[in-house]
Amino acid sequence: MTADRAPVLLVVHHTPSPPTRELLEAVLSGANDPEIEGVTVRSVPALGATIPDVLSADGYVFGTSANFGYMSGALKHFFDTVYYPCLDAVAGRPYGLWVHGNNDTAGAVRAVEKIVTGLALTKVAATVEITGGVDAAARERCYELGATVAVTLTPG
């Protein structure tokens, strides 16, 4: 973050289903809460996110479905693409994570956490794990996730 630009929160997601899309919308609503000022929120699908996107961001929220006990292939491709070029350059930056699965999210969470540990990102909010349908409580948890990570970037 520099004095001449607002800090950027990059939301990288793979949201192919209505439930994961609903959770993304809740994360974005929280990150864009009107009480959080001075933060630019960018939402980029995992298959479209680039190295410059990651390097120019000041914090991150990652979202994925849990597929066959792992993160989505799209989010894995994103991490494969940006990992080494961004290694060391993003150390210490804050992140949050949400994962949606039909019946299990543990493997997906574990895989993402290994990667972000390697990048030396700083977890600033509890991981949101949702299984099954999306209800008001799940949307609220994702709203809080987006808001929490965004507020860590506020100037001052």
Which properties best describe this structure?
7-stranded mixed beta sheet, Rossmann fold, 156 residues, oxidoreductase activity, globular, Flavoprotein-like_sf, Flavodoxin family protein, alpha/beta, FMN_Rdtase-like_dom
Strand and helix layout:
Blueprint: E1 8-13, H1 18-31, E2 40-45, H2 51-56, E3 59-67, E4 70-71, H3 73-86, E5 94-101, H4 106-118, E6 122-123, E7 128-131, H5 136-151
Parallel strand pairs: 1-2, 1-3, 3-5, 5-6, 5-7
Antiparallel strand pairs: 3-4
Helix pairs in contact: 1-5
Low-confidence stretches: none
Number of separate helices: 5
Quick one: how many beta strands?
Answer: 7
Average pLDDT number? 95
| N→C terminal distance | 12 Å
What's the CATH first level? Alpha Beta
**Order of SSEs:** EHEHEEHEHEEH
Gyration radius over CA: 14 Å
Strand content: 15-25%
What coarse outline follows from CA principal-axis ratios?
globular
Which percent range fits the helix content?
40-55%
- In the CATH hierarchy, what is the architecture at level 2? 3-Layer(aba) Sandwich
Looking at this structure, what is the CATH superfamily? Flavodoxin domain
Structural class: alpha/beta
| Number of structural units classed as domains | 1
- Oligomeric category: single chain
Enter the CATH topology name.
Rossmann fold
Which sheet architecture does the biggest sheet show? 7 strands, mixed
